[in-house]
Amino acid sequence: MQSLTFSNMSKAFGGVSALADVTLNLSGGRVHALMGENGAGKSTLIKLIAGVLKADSMSVEKNGQPLSVNDARDAHEAGFRFIHQELNIIPQVSVAENVLLGRDLPRKLGLAVDWKKVKTLAEDALAFLGATHIDVTVPAGDLPAGDKMMMKIAAALVSGEQSKPVLYVLDEPTAALTGEESEKLFDVIERLKTKGASILYVSHRIDEVLRICDDVTVLRDGEFVASNEIPKTSKADIIQAMTGRNFKNAYPKRETQVGEDITVSLKNVSTSNLQDVCFDIRAGEILGISGLAEAGQSDLLKLFMGIGKIKTGSASYMNEALPGSPSEAWARGIAYIPRERRSEALCLDMSVKSNIVLPHLSEYGFYAKPRLESEDALEFGDKVKLKSNGVLQPVGQLSGGNQQKIVFARGLKGDPRLLLLDEPTRGVDIGAKYDIYLLVRELSAKGCSVILTSTDLPEVLGMCDRILVMQHGRQAYLLESAQMTSADLLSYFFTDNEAAV
Amino acid sequence: MLQKLRQSGTLLGFFLILLFFALKLPDTFLTARNLINISQQLSMLAVVAATMTIVMVMNDFDLSVGSMASLSGIVAAMLFTAGSPVWVGLSVALLVGVFGGLFNGFLVSVVGILPFVATLGTLTVFSGLAFLLSDGKTIFGRDIPSSFSGFARAGIEIGDVKVPMLTITAGLVIFICWAILEHTNFGRRLYAIGGNKEASYLAGIKVVRLRLIAFSLTGLGAAGAGLMYAARVASANPTQGSGLMLDAIAAVFLGMTMSRRGEPKVVYTLVGVLILGVLDNGMTQLRVDSYVREIFVGLIVLAAVAVASLSKRRNAK
User: Fold this and answer.
1) By Cβ atoms counted within 10 A, which residue in A354, B155, B201, B271 is the most buried?
2) CB-nearest partner of A349 from B185, B202, B261
3) All domains of chain B, ordered by start, with CATH?
4) What is the CA radius of gyration of chain A?
5) Is residue A433 domain-resident?
6) Which of A180-184, A361-365, B159-163, B170-174 bottoms out in mean pLDDT, i.e. has the lowest?
7) ipTM over 0.90
8) Helix (H, G, I), strand (E, B) or coil at A50
9) What value does the mean pLDDT take over residues A380-403?
10) B183–A367 C-beta distance less than 8 A
11) In whole angstroms, what is the distance from residue A319 CA to residue A27 CA?
12) Residue A441 reports pLDDT greater than 90
């Protein structure tokens, strides 16, 4: 059985230690979870293994033999494969070419590309993963998120011809996947295990880790905290190790009553992507929107931002027509936390301050008022417990959790009447998640209505008063969330509701 | 380290260039008269580059400024020839600039054509219009009223130095652009659009409208520069603005190497303009072939952009 040891891993940035003397023991054919809150040093650790960052110190041993990993090429030759959180794919190019990316395509007579062979190579790799349903000739950008992940794993497999893969590093692989897609991924991981390689699995999702991993190592503040076999540990132990705090209820309870006034009312609304959506939301109510990936959740949220045209039916917000554009929506007290933090919410090169006040610039009048903006940014940064080096730090330098807090601070500032949350805790660590949930509860207590979409079912159940289940853009169920379990909710995703048609 | 070098390197280079010419041309270069002369030579470029900065802040750019400058000069001169009062000629020429810019903005933000392609198209259109209107000829002589061309010769006496009106105009335009971009919320929004268009839109920024306005300001600047040029040479011809576009973009790029995160800023654009202008003046005095000067400017811009993208790549790691 193969063994792989990374020991004495250290890295400091400008005198600040990001990783201090961490050791990781990986055995072949086992899935090893790497856990820790954002900023715990997971990303740094992965970058050291990948040779992307130069370690201050690190020694690598494979089966007792020392290996040198100084740069990305060394890491690749050593057989380390990385499947990242943010997938690097070339969307316009076919799946087959994406799978074979980074290696020479097979050729006929050393000249023309042998497309037939390209296709079979890619298909074989996907077939090994059990993903035979993927058509390798379509552009990679057209695949659903789960299939993109399969494609990247297949690519990691194929690129192993020159050097056999000994380690797969999966960085938050399920962050963008639905429950069903995640299940497929777990099957794939089982198959990878049989090949004898080690798998390092980085995730925030404890339930997932408990289910599919064999070992776990926990980091906190750049230091090693604990390492154990999964059967010998528990959810509470892991959370305790990650946060240094005791396990508390993951979701704050509702403490106030839902109000009487109706904030939002949709009556049989259909758009090009939505059909027959029908619900009211009261002041302070939290409505969850759930369903399989891309069943229309984001489209429904965007409708309130004035994106998308209502074809039939009627919709109102505060007893008036829905806003016609994002700028009108913000002006009328609708705050929006988009799904893709980096591409849809933040200007990464710009400061914390600029990002927080962005939708509210008109409040400052014609001339910019930097001092007032800084005060506001500080105030709202504090409210969301933001950790940054002042309000002038570019947000691109912050962790995912802190970036998301900035987007929340932006939403809070307008004192919203309706808060739209699209996957609000994706890629956010447990501590920051809890802070975010508290903020949502606080707003709801003040009478702000909330619409929340999430693929994290416990989150939907833990936070929402009612849950709207969507299937293919159609409203399938509107359920009370009390007493429901994740399994109950999941079953509604797959059961057609004849009555609703 | 590289970041520091990049930020201060351009300024250092500028001083080295100044020093070089000061030593090579001890009698003529660092004289009040020559410096005033440079400032006047530079004034058109400064106006175009400062207004170009407004669109480049949004990651857009405008290739049509040079032919717009030609067109506005021709339009004004045609109106003068037809006997219009000076203020009518000026206003119409500036309006042509605004509408030309709006058209660019429309193509880019409403139709959704890439700025490069859209403004390459309008570059040709504006240039063609200038030729069509003028019949390809230079308009000069008695057709150009002296109150128009006199502006370029006028100046304000400060001590024993006469600061030309063109220099003052350029200074005003730069100041206004600086105030707009750095001190109004309009400017802040433009920077946000440059940072992330989609995020800005979803955060309620009226991206389409702002891009229209920004492009029309750039068009207005180009038209203004064309008028300044026409006043200075007391004539208008359909190719007079053709050199402005490349120099203006080069100046903004040079300036971008000096800012912290590589974003364009008016003050740094001004440094870029000065670098190009000083080089131009010094090399002319040294009787360096103007073709050699072009090669030189091209290489400087490439070096500046190369350093900028190298340090960006470092930062990304």
Assistant:
1) A354
2) B261
3) 2-316 (1.10.3470)
4) 24
5) no
6) A180-184
7) no
8) helix
9) 87
10) yes
11) 61
12) yes
